[in-house]
Amino acid sequence: NRHHHRGQSPSSPPPPPSPPSPNRPLYRRVYNFIRQAWTGVKFSLDSEFDDLETPPRYRPESVQYFCRTTGFTESEIKKIYRNFKTECPTGLIKEDAFRGIYSQFFPQGANISQYAHYVFQSLDHERNGILNFEDMVQGLWTLSRGSVDDKLRWAFTLYDLDGDGQICRDEMTRVVTAIYELMGKFAEPWLKDGTTVAAHVDFVFQKMDLNRDGVVSFDEFMETCKNDENITRAMISM
């Protein structure tokens, strides 16, 4: 039952920690980053397109398409797109630019590189190393106004590093390690050495791998989260 899933024995390690107070949840930082990427932060693409006489232009779908696929209104989509085009004339963002702006939302000295890479990859649905307006607006919707299920689906994508539709223990370890590295000194009370990460991963992975086949499927991920509020809270606060 629900109470049974939420409980844990005294010897069981806790689930992966949420970022400590007073820091905002990581997904809120991601949301703020995406929002500011088109509302006031100047950056250059610094890409191979700079060498071309005419940079390729990304042509997004219609306004109506984005209204259908998100909950944004037509006026909101138009405003977002105008600001996005002002900051990103080609309509494309490479990972270096993404990471550069993302670093502004964390304490100085925090190691954001690996986690920013994983976030970028989770938004890069084409897996081509470039984000377009559709990638960004879908991410903005999910992280700002999405339901718990929406955020959990995004979290699954974040952990599914190779995009094969399942999470292996190594993938979970890499993402959890990146979260600890990202929080820098704020994570220090939780992270004493590598065994702490391993203990957290073992606990969560064993709970999620319901059929004991060594990987966590999307259905297993969602079922476990829905039956354990602590794990859900940790996942959507990333």
Can you walk me through this structure?
The protein is mostly helical and 238 residues long. It has helices at residues 2-6, 26-37, 63-69, 74-87, 95-102, 113-123, 133-145, 148-159, 169-183, 194-208, 218-227, 229-236, and strands at 92-94, 130-132, 166-168, 215-217. The chain contains twelve helices and four strands; from the N terminus they run H-H-H-H-E-H-H-E-H-H-E-H-H-E-H-H. The protein has a two-stranded antiparallel sheet. The model is unreliable at 1-14, 16-23 and 38-55 (pLDDT under 50).
Describe the structure in brief.
The protein is mostly helical and 238 residues long.
What is the total domain count?
A: 2
The count of strands amounts to 4
Give the low-confidence spans.
1-14, 16-23, 38-55
Stated plainly, the CATH topology of the largest domain is called Recoverin, domain 1
First-to-last CA distance: 26 Å
Q: Output the number of helix runs.
A: 12
The order of strands across the largest sheet is 1-2
Quaternary form: single chain
The geometry reads as: globular
What's the overall average pLDDT, rounded? 77
From the 3D coordinates, which CATH architecture of the largest domain would you assign?
Answer: Orthogonal Bundle
Q: Just give the CATH class of the largest domain.
A: Mainly Alpha
Order of helices and strands: HHHHEHHEHHEHHEHH
Rg calc: 19 Å
- The proportion of residues in beta strands is 5-15%
- Relevant CATH superfamily of the largest domain: EF-hand
